[in-house]
Amino acid sequence: MKHLRFYHTPRSISVCFAVAAFAAAAFLFAAASRLGLGQTAAAAAPSHEKPAANAASARAAAPRWRVAVAALPADASPDDYFVRDVRSSRILESQPYDSDGDGKPDQLLFLSTATPATPTTPTATTATAHTVPSEYAVVRKPADFRAPAPVKRVHARFAPERMDDFLWENDRIAHRVYGPALVTGEGTLSSGIDVFVKSTNALVMDKFYKRGDYHRDHGEGLDCYDVGQSRGLGGTAIFHGGKWYPSGNFVTWRVLAAGPLRVEFELTYAAWDVGGRKVSEVKRFTVDAGSDFTKVVSRFTTTGDAPLLVGAAVLRTDWKGRRKHATRAYALADKADSPAAPAASGDGWLADWQPNRGQNGATAVGLVVPGALAAKAVEGHWILSRSVRSGEPFTYYIGAGWSKGWYPQKAGWIAAVKAFAQETR
């Protein structure tokens, strides 16, 4: 593969190189101006058009972009660099990101259009010269650098106007979980995860909530996923004595990263009883533009050294015992109450295709738990589980799509979930 060479602009730089650097910068900014603010090599602003109805494979349904990490010199600040698409000379959308939680950005995320066969991580070294894959270049910002206006492709917020929901979405899919006000306001104690299917790249959740009528499709998607007191898509529970014990509604929240390419937030769940043992939970959610999946990292705190068997579950739509409203926690029996199986499953993953009522197509759901035991049927759900100790991370991924969106065929969704599971190994 052909490589290009790019440079820092240290104080000792020669006059000749300085002239060349500023000329290159002028070219970049002129190109950006001609193309309009907010446009990048990866994509322009999110399209409001519906996806093609004839997509026939997981590849056709795959995201048109993905969030990648630019490799920077060890002592560099992400705020001092940008990423350029070498082929088009356009500046890529990017976001400084604090990956270790110390309050300082240490990574530069950018929007990549690379396929798995092409590099997605441009490299930079502490040396004066930078050798990078020909698709992308990491460039130190000149003094007069002006970034294009950001295009927000992810969104997450607390929604007190709807009884303390917490919602999130990207250009592919949307979700929500339930807060404390729902218990007193509607009588629903549940830490299940809800799904809003979408047929547009636009961010729509604020519009849906303002309109209120989000159980009907007005051309962009809807909430047709009936959670109630179930685990929904990826709600967790802890096993003890033949039952799976879930938490209640989240009690606190905080946003750690607010986009435009990645949002990250934490929810805390008050201690609940697991067979006489008190357990509390903190969940961290990471949502990237272009992905059908949300990464979830749960940490459980409890007394004693005995490990916890933790499961993430997927609701079976034929569960007759599901309750819509209940103010007391409900533990799931550790036994199958139906012969139904997910559409497909494998090592640490499962996928299902769940028809909706009326003209609302089918909701595609997927769950990936690296290192999990084989998928198991329990009351009203399928569950993927593994053991963790107090304070250890339980990492998993939830994904969803829609037959009237980017996944018109079940086979395409199954292939996408399987491929994603392989990426997480």
Short account of what is shown:
With 425 residues, the chain is mainly beta. It contains five helices and 27 strands.
Please tell me about this protein's structure.
The structure is a single chain. The chain is mainly β and 425 residues long. It has 2 domains: 138 residues, no CATH class; 270 residues, Beta-galactosidase, Chain A, domain 5, CATH 2.70.98. 12% of the residues lie in helices and 38% in strands. The strands form 6 sheets. The protein has an 8-stranded antiparallel beta sheet, with helices on one face. Strands 21-15-14-20-26-25 form a 6-stranded antiparallel beta sheet, with no helix packed on it. The N terminus is likely disordered.
Class by SSE composition: mainly beta
Mean pLDDT: 83
CATH architecture of the largest domain: Distorted Sandwich
Largest sheet: 8 strands, antiparallel
- Fraction of helical residues: 10-25%
Instruction: Give the amount of beta strand, in percent.
Output: 35-45%
Unreliable stretches: 1-44, 52-63, 115-133
Distance between the termini: 27 Å
Cα gyration radius (Å): 23 Å
Number of helices: 5
Provide the CATH topology of the largest domain. Beta-galactosidase, Chain A, domain 5
Task: Give the CA-based shape.
Answer: globular
Quickly count the domains. 2
The number of strands is 27
CATH top level class name of the largest domain: Mainly Beta
Question: Strand arrangement, largest sheet?
Answer: 16-17-18-19-27-24-23-22
